[in-house]
Amino acid sequence: MTTTTTTPEPGAPAGGGATVLDATGVTMRFGGLTAVHDVDLTVGAGEIVGLIGPNGAGKTTFFNCLTGLYVPTEGTVRYRGTVLPHRSHLVTQAGIARTFQNIRLFANMTVLENVLVGRHTRTNEGLFSALLRGPGFRRAERESEERAMELLEFTGLASKRDHLARNLPYGEQRKLEIARALASDPGLLLLDEPTAGMTGAETTATRELVLSIREQGTAVLVIEHDMRFIFNLCDRVAVLVQGEKLIEGTPAVVQRDERVVAAYLGTPFEGEPGAEEAEEVRAAEERAHGSEPSDGRGTPGRDAKDGTAAPEGDDH
CA-to-CA distance for 62 and 241, rounded, in angstroms? Predict the structure, then answer.
């Protein structure tokens, strides 16, 4: 497949600002099948970049490679010039947070408690401090709660602080997951289909929220199937088809590309592997990581310190 990019030069964001994320040659194979092949992508400070493509294009697999849930077969991922470790909580600690395509909240915890989980990577209190509950621990606990309440105010959930997460409407659960991700004070936020299942009004509110996140200094990389949402939101858009980057550029450039139109309409084009191979890749991924829709870490709470661990329940 021939790829095209409008990025000025490798490793540099289109806007010319400092590079926050630099993914180079990222490849992910499951057995003999390739889910993502040789994908390059950069995100600059202050940018909102979209990642789109048909179902099975490898978008979430690529996200998992960026966030340490998968170890790429080939390629490197750098955050602010430093190669990231292949552990999700260390990636979060470095400055990258994410949400998931399927909401992964702690269903039986309150709204406030869910956000407090995301603060753990920004506190230095250890086991003994927690057991003794000395002045340092109480101060850190108070500061974490203050920050969590700021984020609930920011996302419009402050009045729901004591509600169980499972009792929130669907749109507010999406907001809560974003608030929890922001609790780690990331420099880059990855959103995996943040408007899935939302009404038009909720989608508009999410767009405004993402723009506000950018205004606060956090760069954003977002996967989404709602093309209107993506093209009205993003500075740049990259298109994945069958695991390869087809094109990258401004929304106007991407919308005009005939190959993008063909990919979404299901029209074959030269070099397309086809739906059968895409299904084989998905099946291989499931076999490699178990049958449940896991985030790659196995049991809930194993890496709970990163604020994105699998919850005790996934109702969606």
Answer: 12
